[in-house]
Design a protein that fits this description.
Layout lengths: L12 E5 L4 E6 L2 E4 L4 H7 L6 H12 L3 H17 L5
Antiparallel strand pairs: 1-2, 2-3
Helix pairs in contact: 2-3
């Protein structure tokens, strides 16, 4: 896995939207509602943890297989990076 320390891009923030009763990513002219464990993943992308550390934390939180989590997390982070929401 990568030693990169993913973090939200400048101008993007994680916010709990009371109206939607859901976590959302707020970006210029965009609101992306996070479903399932996506908010937990994004919350760990604070620029201090590596991808391995994020996967380890989620494996403990969800008591799940690290290999399965690693693939899901990598896919999600790649998608967010592709949308310029994550560095």
């Amino acid at each position: 896995m990568s030693e990169a320390q993913p973090r939200l891009a400048p101008g993007v923030r994680l916010h709990f939207d009371k109206t939607r009763d859901a976590w959302v990513l707020l970006a210029p002219e965009r609101v992306i509602e996070l479903e399932g464990p996506a908010a937990d993943i994004v919350r760990l992308c604070d620029g201090t943890r590596t991808l391995d550390q994020i996967v380890d934390a989620l494996a403990v939180q969800y008591t799940a297989d690290k290999a399965e989590i690693a693939g899901d997390v990598a896919d999600m982070l790649a998608e967010l990076a592709g949308k310029r929401l994550l560095l």
